[in-house]
Design a protein that fits this description.
Chain lengths: 471, 174
């Protein structure tokens, strides 16, 4: 794009900073170099670049949802930046046919009628937003898989786990279990007796979504802001309560009841107050549009310069590459070793994380369609003497497990892939217990240096044919 | 019905919706997905074909039924009268789409196009639950209906048409 000057010159000049420094870095990454790394022919890379720039700004490169642009590799942070820069060269930021900024409604506050508590005047224990630790880490999300480390160091004594099952969904379960077991007071608010709930000192059972009224929500990804409301359709079948009610009632006993002196109905009314919709309207429709229609373009971005930062001074000051730089993955399988693979993971359409693992209908589906298998490229499988459906042993530096293979053309020869939603080790989840594996069983505890993410595809495994396992 | 297979992402929601609608047992299903893979890495493609009772106009299951339990109504829906069914399973052998099941009570069941619901103005559960809009449902006897026009305009084909079962489900394939 830069070499052939195919980028949106006007957008780059007016809405970006640092373009001049981009050329010095990307000269190291011509299509011929990329071809050797990713096996896509240089000619194809050039062709696609010419085609996509011809269509700009109605052209975009999507960040994917589970590819390399998130928390998968040592260089995922810079990959995400490179992608954002490529999109800015296409000039598609908040343009028709390009990438839109999702609109959120500004909900009303519960104060002053119900005072807001003061936030503790201290940095987050996981170091997010703290200079010298993870200044670029997401303060809002935190680094969840740091919790067992903090507990093992004795820095974390008590906690509530809500809508989350870290013992199964964090990397390196043996270490996570050790960490969480060290917590002196662990309370789980959950809808099922998950792995985490099973070791908690107290479990506060939450109602399923069909059994509870929820708080008004506005986090959506539409061009126009929306508000939505999830409503109860059946009375709770057992002695469970909605999460919001659990928090409101707990607050009283914890001595902070004055901040939670309302019910969900009143809270929702206050949240909707500044908007042009009533709670009754929202209850009837479930989802409503609010706020202005989408407008093309933007004035200022939420960056120090107000523009797209191709060159990022914040990163420079923290000692990170200020223009995206290629870094090799932390680990890679030895191409000479027929048993060595990179372990990837992802979802099949029927499961949602570990939440749905115990649903009998979904387990029946999983068996009916033979979905509890390791995907492997057919050529690699043949090399290992495997037939479709054979049992294999997978081993990484922290874990080992057995599963059947699915031989397919739908995966890169250097990788194998495990679907999530299996490998449950809570004995209380009787349908799912001991069925299949989870990639977390093989993933060591990593914290990427830039934002602290889990580098979840930095796993090399040894795969060998093994004896059939009878259940 | 029209099934636009190009929109199917293989999520199985239609199977689960049908399951709930008909209070089926855990392993029972009236509709299922056929999955196929094509090509060699990296030129790979995958397709999902939803299959349920085709409510054929020339139904083999009706022809072979010794008691008349399997029958086709005037409105085109093929049903099984469980009071007449003796569970001989001849219809299961005769059906080329493999969409009939035997209930533990001993009679045959299959997709009913949610007909009791449809008669009251509803639509089949497999259609309404689908997030990508794979299925259309309507009156094939009305040449001006949206579905009839869509079939003609897109020159849609039937599944195993060569067997001359004359299915009432038309497929848009990749």
């Amino acid at each position: 794009m830069v070499k052939e000057e195919l980028y949106d010159k006007k957008f780059v000049a007016e809405k970006t900073v640092g373009f001049e420094q981009l050329g010095d870095e990307i000269v190291n990454y011509p299509p011929e170099w990329a071809e050797k790394v990713c096996e896509i022919p240089a000619k194809t890379i050039v062709r696609i670049t010419r085609e996509i720039t011809q269509a700009k700004p109605k052209a975009l490169i999507h960040r994917g949802y589970h590819g390399a642009f998130g928390a998968q590799y040592l260089n995922s942070f810079q990959t995400a930046r490179a992608l954002a820069i490529a999109n800015s060269l296409l000039g598609n930021i908040n343009r028709k046919g390009g990438i839109y900024f999702a609109q959120s409604a500004k909900l009303g506050e519960l104060q002053p009628k119900h005072p807001a508590p003061e936030l503790p005047q201290m940095g987050k224990l996981d170091g997010t937003g703290v200079p010298g630790r993870y200044p670029l880490g997401s303060y809002g999300d935190g680094i969840a898989h740091a919790i067992p480390e903090l507990a093992l160091r004795g820095e974390l004594k008590a906690g509530f786990v809500y809508h989350y099952n870290p013992l199964r969904t964090n990397p390196n379960p043996k270490r996570v279990i050790a960490g969480y077991k060290k917590i002196e007071l662990l309370v789980a608010i959950d809808t099922v007796l998950s792995e985490t709930a099973s070791i908690a000192h107290y479990v506060l059972p939450e109602s399923f979504y069909l059994e509870r009224d929820e708080a008004v929500d506005t986090k959506h990804s539409g061009k126009r802001a929306q508000v939505s409301l999830q409503q109860k359709v059946v009375k709770p079948l057992y002695d469970t309560r909605p999460g919001t009610q659990i928090i409101i009632e707990l607050a009283k006993h914890l001595g902070v009841g004055r901040y939670f002196d309302f019910n969900i109905e009143e809270a929702n009314q206050l949240r909707l107050k500044p908007l042009d919709v009533s709670l009754e309207q929202l209850k009837e429709k479930g989802v409503l549009f609010v706020g202005e229609e989408w407008k093309e373009g933007f004035n200022k971005l939420d960056t120090p310069s107000g523009k797209v930062e191709i060159y990022c001074k914040t990163l420079e000051q923290l000692g990170f590459p200020s223009i995206p730089r290629w870094e090799e993955p932390l680990v890679s399988p030895d191409p000479q070793d027929p048993h060595a693979f990179r372990l990837l993971h992802g979802k099949q359409a029927i499961h949602t994380h570990s939440m749905t693992a115990n649903q009998p209908v979904l387990m029946a589906l999983s068996h009916r369609y033979d979905m509890i298998r390791l995907w492997m490229n057919k050529k690699r499988g043949k090399q290992l003497g495997l037939k479709d459906g054979d049992w294999v042993n997978i081993k990484s530096i922290i874990g080992e497990g057995k599963i059947r293979v699915r031989l397919t053309e739908g995966i890169h020869p250097s990788c194998v892939w495990l679907p999530s939603g299996y490998g449950i080790f809570s004995k209380n989840l009787k349908t799912a217990y001991d069925v299949g594996l989870s990639y977390n069983d093989f993933l060591p505890t990593y914290f990427d240096p830039t934002v602290g993410h889990s580098m979840s595809s930095e796993i090399v495994v040894q795969v060998n044919k093994t004896q059939e396992v009878r259940s | 019905m029209v099934i636009n297979e190009t929109k199917c992402v293989g999520c199985h929601a239609c199977r689960v919706a049908c399951h709930n609608q008909n209070s089926l047992e855990e392993k029972e299903a009236y509709n299922h997905l056929e999955e196929r893979e094509y090509g060699n890495f990296p030129n790979y493609a995958r397709e999902f074909l939803p299959v349920q009772c085709q409510h054929c106009d020339n139904p083999p299951c009706v022809k072979v039924c010794p008691t008349g339990a399997s029958h086709k109504r005037k409105d085109g829906v093929v049903l099984v009268d469980k009071n007449k069914c003796i569970g001989c399973k001849y219809c299961i052998a005769a059906c080329p789409y493999n969409v009939r099941i035997i209930k533990k009570e001993g009679y045959i069941e299959k997709c009913r196009f949610c007909i009791e619901f449809v008669e009251k103005g509803g639509k089949p559960a497999c259609m309404t639950t689908c997030m990508t809009g794979v299925r259309m449902f309507g009156d094939l006897d009305d040449p001006n209906s949206e579905i009839s026009q869509y079939i003609v305009k897109n020159k849609l084909k039937q599944f195993k048409a060569e067997l001359n079962t004359k299915p009432r489900i038309y497929y848009k394939k990749a």
